[in-house]
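INTERNAL AUDIT FORM
Audit reference: QA-55
Scope: verify that the stored structure record matches its stored sequence.
Auditor: D.O.
Record contents follow.
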Amino acid sequence: MRSLLAIFVLGCALAGCGNPTPQNSSSTSTTSPAQIVNVTTVESQKLETTLTLPGQITPYEVVDIYPKVTGFLDSITVDRGSPVRTGQVIIRLSAPEIVAQRGEAEAALKTAEAQLGAAQAKFASDHGTYLHLAAAAQTPGVVAGNDLQVADQTAAADKAQVEAATKNVQAAQNALRSVAQLESYLEIRAPFDGVVTQRNLHPGALVGPASGQSGALPIVHIENLNRLRVVVPVPEAYTAGVREKLEVTFGVPADPGKSFRAPIARISHDINQNTRTMQVELDYHNADAQITPGSFANVDWPIHRTYPTLFVPATAVTTDLQRTFVIRVRQGKTDWIDVKTGVSVNGKTEVFGDLTPGDVVVRNATDSIRSGVSVEIHDKAN
């Protein structure tokens, strides 16, 4: 009896081992849902916009007046703010030594002219004697050959003396002109129409050429205020399409809300290596003196390209501190496309990269949307 019970228990145990406990059907694996993104399309268009660039207003002409000779400041007829005209005498100097030099030069010239006259008279006399002897020598035995030769040599020596005296007169004339030129420097004239903006010296001051210690300061500073230069340092990226005679609008802080127009007059055609800008000048005629030189200017600079470029919303461009990119979506997959940015216009940014018009990109790009992942497009708008 006991042996039958043991066999029954052993059979039940073997039957249990052959029927393992079934697994829960709810434990099957699941996948994460695709990220939902808003997208937009890449647009192609020609760039036409304006940017505000800083400018500096300077006089068209400006000069520091220094004396050309050493002397005492005798009189000065202008002061700060005085208008001047071209050729107007504004400063007179006194230099007695230059007046003395002129007297010496005049005396030297008269002496040289007197010596020339004496030499010419002697040459005329001796040359006449030679001609008389030469005529008489045509008759044999009337004039000795040696006398004729002596007369010829005397006339030749006189001619050389005349030539030397002529050169002495020319040298004396040049010396007199040089002294007269120095004397003319005692009167200083305005080189162009303008306004005196600085006056540094007064009558009685000893002045001299700028190379000397006494010439450290100019006597006066003159500026042409009727014509101004508006100097604009244009960034390298915006130099395309710059051309002369193109009119540009600008404003100044002294007249807020008022705009002025001036044409592009001068282009440097050179990029500064330090600032990466090109100097461009506008030419403004300031006949009514509305603008003061030295003012700061806000210039509305025209930017345009002759060929179409690609644009995306500014939010579609992002960076991960190593690269700047947009996220293109193709067949539900993302792809980071490296780009270089250009000008931003009305919320859209110019981009250059491996893109074509009509490409679909994530509208609000972020580096949290990894490249190569699946996304679901929620909305597509431009």
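Auditor finding: record pair retrieved intact. Residues 96-184 form one domain.
Action required: none
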